[in-house]
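[Q] Does anyone have a clean structure-token version of this?
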Amino acid sequence: MDLRRRHGLAHEEAIHDPEAMVCLESVARLLDDAADEFARPDLGLRLGSSQNPGMLGLLAVVIQGSDSVGSALADISRYLFVHSPSYQIVVETPLPAPNMGWVTVRFDVDVDAQVPFRQLVDGCLSSMLTLARSLTGIPITPHSVSLPHTPAASRRTYETVFGAPVVFEQPRAAVHLAPDLLATPLKPARPEIRRAAIAYIAERYPPSTITTATRVRNALGGTIGATRGTKTEIADLLQLHPRTLQRRLSSEGVTFESIREDVYRTATWRLLTLSTLPLSQVAHTLGFSEQSAMNRSVRRWFDTTPAGVRTTAASRSACDTR
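[A] Here you go.
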């Protein structure tokens, strides 16, 4: 209770109402503090691997009515806002390159760059696999798993939980699956219950309208390091003319440049503070033309150098664990 109270999560609604929305940043900080206080660096993994479909509520009913793994993923992507508006699952098509023919299921979480989110991401990704195995009745085995931070627990612990090799210090969290898995039929379900659940969601919750700004943010986050993140590149991905893209963003009161700045600022902070990659590799992973370009951006964003960001984050972490 003390930990919940410390993070503003001890009120009656947060404890007893299963449909109550709580602040995700508070949850992330709570998990991080609990992992330190109880000396359980694998806390997120343990919580995720112990979840059951009931925690998804209506979303579980919708998924159970899907006819294949691929359609279930599409349902999750479409209706995940019911569970948390700060989570997003994106299914990326296989890359046409040797040994890269797997489907990437990317998990994104929208929290401020400086919120500690390692335990949260560990928990969400392990929960995603645990629930997928439970809901489908299929012993899903990923090709590999990517995580955007250094391991909190041992590598063996991660690989035991996920049942697959785990690659750390990546730009984003993702599970990589065999393409033929998407066509795998699910165990029989009652489609009428699924339709009723979707109708209830439509009545109970406001439409989950994806704004152009959100689409741009997702496209930028999903292509960091693969493109330079220019307006022309992103407009092409969204099948829009650059002028049309800018006009739609203007109508929403934002600019492409401000969104790009925020996405890259967040990604840079996380790779600097949650990974041990050499600075030159961080710059390359983020798509900077050279390390000096990253240095200038970091100076503008955080008023210090990349090394300074790491030193400050390490000092704070040391203080928090004393």
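[Q] Thanks! Anything notable?
[A] Residues 6 and 116 are 16 Å apart (CA to CA).
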